[in-house]
Design goal:
- The protein is mainly β.
């Protein structure tokens, strides 16, 4: 079922994903303070449904969304009973339509109930799912039209040209990584492509290059557009046709550097497409020599992109956070244990973040490591050892550490530890592990045990022999009293 998605800002991500330019339906603008309710579509002008070479084998495409926005006005009312009718009958011959649970359909016409939309807010549905057909050519297209109505706003209309893209251009996938790259040190990547289809790229080729945080592109070519001067993404266009069955590489390498102070690791990715369609968020044109394409021997590439992993000289040093288990025998105490991230580098969110391992002191028992994730309470934030005396393994990337995980700070959690007995000199250990920790000397710390004797009442009540003797004494006393009462009654 396709559920509505709340739109809180202009959906730039949608524009980038379909490489399209937004077209806003014609509607009068609401003057600030007028209170007038005005709707507008925030839909793409063009949308690529699938590639011609994929034909009927293309995966269902349900990414086409129809966002409706209420223009903000001071004191404006919400738009009431907003409904959108989407007519996809213009796609006959270029796409097949799949059933959509989100918007009921009659043939190729879908009706979506958006409900009440607040002033300055919006809503988005994906009304239909698109399937490919065989026998089409790149550039074949149809039009989808849509109309939005509301009880208290003027009707608006819009349209999107739905095109067949292609051909599908392939890349080598994961390529040989780069290791030991220092911040500021340049590195090169030659992008490669293969057109293993029966179609030539009649309208040229586009190359999209992206970098992870902390990595920037430093060679700015005149046929490329960038997100900025310190670019993390580039879009390059080549007028040359990529022939069917042919392979190519860039005539010059793409140059990138790790930006100081840098991260321990990063990645550069690239992908190819045809026809070219520049994303709106790449406004800066390069001034250097143009990047060219050079034909090479055929390649059996079958991946959608190329990816180069980077390991830098920057480390993320971890140091244990430890404390003493202090209390009386029989107490269960909270002991905060974890690690401190000394940097200077920071692992990205999708990378392995590391762990710490805890072996509690002799004479103690870890009874729980409570945590809360998305409002739900849990008992064990760390994996428990299979055998007594083993280590509790605490992966700080796990959900149990969501609320206490601190990038560039201390990630620690309360261990609930019961003191079972006094063991003079007992010490547990805590050891940190990080994928980019290159300073092992400070990875280990001790967890001392400072146990005081149990209070007298606890020693008395805590002994199972004492409990047994007490119960027997009570039973004997009750029996004795009953016999005395019976004898007294008989004697009288």
């Amino acid at each position: 079922m396709h559920l509505p998605i709340r739109v809180l800002r202009r959906p730039a991500a949608l524009a980038a994903s379909v490489a399209a330019v937004f077209a806003t339906a014609v509607a009068p603008a609401a003057a600030d303070g007028s209170g007038q309710v005005v709707l507008r579509f925030e839909t793409p002008e063009t949308f690529v449904m699938y590639n011609a070479d994929q034909g009927s084998g293309a995966a269902p495409n349900d990414r086409f969304a129809v966002p409706v926005h209420v223009a903000a006005s001071k004191g404006g009312e919400p738009a009431r009973n907003v409904r959108v009718v989407v007519d996809a009958s213009g796609l006959k011959g270029v796409a097949r339509l799949a059933h959509s649970d989100g918007c009921p359909a009659e043939g190729a016409v879908y009706t979506c109930a958006y409900g009440t939309l607040q002033n300055g807010d919006g809503e988005s549905y994906t009304p239909l799912s698109l399937l490919g057909v065989d026998g089409v050519e790149p550039g074949d297209s149809g039009t989808v039209t849509y109309t939005a109505t509301a009880d208290n706003a003027a009707t608006i209309t819009g349209a999107t040209r739905m095109t067949v893209g292609g051909p599908t251009l392939s890349a080598p996938g994961r390529e040989k990584g780069v290791s030991g790259l220092a911040p500021g040190q340049p590195a090169n990547l030659t992008a490669r492509l293969a057109n293993n289809t029966r179609f030539a790229t009649e309208q040229g080729v586009a190359l999209q290059v992206g970098t992870s945080e902390g990595v920037t592109l430093t060679a700015l070519h005149s046929n490329c557009f960038y997100t900025g001067r310190a670019a993390t993404s580039a879009w390059c266009t080549f007028p040359r046709k990529a022939a069917a069955g042919a392979a190519y590489r860039t005539g010059a390498p793409l140059v990138y550097t790790v930006t100081p102070p840098g991260r321990p690791a990063g990645e550069v990715t690239y992908s190819w497409s045809s026809p070219p369609s520049r994303p709106a968020d790449h406004p800066v044109r390069g001034t250097g020599p143009p990047l060219t394409l050079v034909r090479t021997a055929g390649q059996d590439f079958d991946d959608s992109d190329g990816r180069v992993g980077i390991t830098t000289t920057v480390q993320a040093d971890y140091r244990p956070v430890t404390a003493t288990v202090r209390g009386r025998v029989g107490d269960t105490v909270k002991v905060r244990l974890g690690l401190e991230d000394l940097g200077p580098g920071r692992a990205r969110g999708d990378e392995e973040t590391g762990r710490f391992e805890v072996v509690p002191p002799e004479g103690t028992t870890v009874t729980s490591i409570p945590f809360t994730f998305e409002g739900d309470a849990g008992t064990w934030a760390c994996a428990r050892p299979e055998k007594p005396g083993g280590a509790f393994v605490c992966e700080i990337g796990r959900d149990g550490f969501y609320e206490v995980r601190k990038e560039g700070g201390t990630t620690a959690i309360d261990f609930h530890i019961r003191i079972d007995r006094r063991v003079p000199g007992a010490k547990g250990t805590i050891r940190t592990y990080g994928p980019f920790d290159r300073t092992p000397a400070n990875d280990l710390a001790v967890i001392p045990l400072d146990a005081s004797p149990a209070p007298p009442y606890r020693r008395f009540l805590g002994s199972p022999w004492t409990w047994t003797a007490g119960v027997l004494a009570v039973v004997v006393l009750a029996v004795t009293r009953r016999l005395r009462r019976r004898n007294a009654t008989t004697a009288s």
